[in-house]
Design brief:
Elements lengths: L6 E5 L18 E8 L10 E5 L11 E5 L10 E12 L7 E15 L5 H11 L17
Antiparallel strand pairs: 1-4, 2-3, 2-5, 5-6
Amino acid sequence: MNRGDSFECPLFINCGTYMEPQRYELTETDKVYFGLMEPNKLWEQSILKQIYTYQSEKTEEGDLIIKIKPEETEYLMPGTYYYEIKLVKYNNENYDEVKEVKTIVPITLFTILWHFHLSSFVYRMAVRANHPAGIPGTESMPIRR
């Protein structure tokens, strides 16, 4: 994912088997936790935490949509991060007594890349080449510095 970009991904929660998958429907007493962590950090030290409930946005099939907003990654250093997704089932709607915790997605690699602008790359290449008129065909291209 590029730093500062939007990101959306459907999350299929399988309560069946690998050979016979079955979609799990969230109940009013369930929460899904998404955590983005730096390398060698604990879940509790996540730099980005999100909570999803049965009321959160879903696909037409009923899968949760995991979303990352641009402002949540625009100041992160490009590099290697890890994410983990957990389902927590509570005994009641007050969410004060945990019934069960299941890791839906174990710790998985997540890479943040530099946000790259082609126009600034073309401008720098023209300057480096010391081409007097820049690069032909790029005169109307906006220049970001």
